[in-house]
UniProtKB/TrEMBL annotation:
<feature type="transmembrane region" description="Helical">
    <location>
        <begin position="91"/>
        <end position="116"/>
    </location>
</feature>
<protein>
    <recommendedName>
        <fullName>Copper transport protein</fullName>
    </recommendedName>
</protein>
<dbReference type="Pfam" id="PF04145">
    <property type="entry name" value="Ctr"/>
</dbReference>
<keyword id="KW-1133">Transmembrane helix</keyword>
<keyword id="KW-0812">Transmembrane</keyword>
<feature type="transmembrane region" description="Helical">
    <location>
        <begin position="59"/>
        <end position="79"/>
    </location>
</feature>
<dbReference type="GO" id="GO:0005886">
    <property type="term" value="C:plasma membrane"/>
</dbReference>
<dbReference type="GO" id="GO:0005375">
    <property type="term" value="F:copper ion transmembrane transporter activity"/>
</dbReference>
<keyword id="KW-0186">Copper</keyword>
<keyword id="KW-0406">Ion transport</keyword>
<keyword id="KW-0187">Copper transport</keyword>
<keyword id="KW-0813">Transport</keyword>
<dbReference type="InterPro" id="IPR007274">
    <property type="entry name" value="Cop_transporter"/>
</dbReference>
<keyword id="KW-0472">Membrane</keyword>
<feature type="transmembrane region" description="Helical">
    <location>
        <begin position="122"/>
        <end position="142"/>
    </location>
</feature>
<comment type="similarity">
    <text>Belongs to the copper transporter (Ctr) (TC 1.A.56) family. SLC31A subfamily.</text>
</comment>
Amino acid sequence: MEHGHDMPGMGDMAPPSPMSMTGPMQHHDMMMMHMTFFWGRSAEILFSGWPGSSDERPYMYFVALLFVFVLSILVEWLSHCRLIKPGSNHVAAGLVQTLLHALRVGLAYMVMLAIMSFNGGVFLVAVAGHALGFLFFGSRVFKRTQNPAKTSDLPPASC
């Protein structure tokens, strides 16, 4: 057996080098994909090449963090808002509920995908956005009424 491998010929197999790659990735810089949390401003969040290199545009990392923070707050607002008036047409109310649910799920998935960049800053601002959003829209701190019977048009989010 070659090179101490159990299977013949396995020592000859090596992954192709980035220089020998062809196709859509051939002209792009190869960016390492992290599978553990890391700290730093050089991250790729949600979209290919965004926010870009921290050397070229250092402010864009903070714009990306602000974007994730606002998305997290919006998810909490949608989870606790009351936009449908009592006595509304059931069909119209059902359609509005469905639209709000789809929007909440879509935004929540965007936050999840941003966290999957494994950037520590993104994780912290997502948690902070959810916490602040819950404080403003879900907790009793800013509620005018003491009636907790119905606090939202949407059912609780489930994972």
